[in-house]
Amino acid sequence: MISDSKVTREIVKRFHNAFEKHRPEDLDDLIGEGCVLENTAPAPDGARYEGREACLAFWKGVASSANLIFKAEEISTMGDRGIIRWQLRWSEREADRVRGVNIMRVRDGKIVEGLGYVKC
C-alpha cells in the first residue's frame, strides 16, 4: 500500500512543476472539489478563493505567466500535508524576487487546500 505521504509528495511535486515549467494544463487533474485557496496577497490575510473552478482559474493564471520564475527550495510532506518553500523572480534584478511557502492539503489524490505566505 502506498502511504498518504508518498501520494501527497507526488501530487505536491506535480503541482509545483506546473509553475516551474509554465504548464497550467497540468493542474487540471490535481485540484479537488471544494478546494480552498488563501493567496499571499493582499496583505495581511490574502485573497480567498473557494471551489475547484475558482482555485484552478487563479493557479492557472499564475502558472501561465511566462515572466514569473518559480523555483522550489524544498518540498516536504507528512501525511496529507505538503509544504513547498519557494522563490519567485519576476526579472533578472536581485531585488525583484520574494521567498515564500505554500502549505497544501491533499485528500483522495487531489489538492483541497492551499495556504500561501511570503516573507516581507
Automatic annotation (TrEMBL):
Organism of provenance: Sinorhizobium meliloti CCNWSX0020
Coiled coil ranges: none
Highest taxon listed in the record's lineage: Bacteria
A Pfam match: SnoaL_2
Domain (SnoaL-like) ranges: 12-113
Protein name: SnoaL-like domain-containing protein
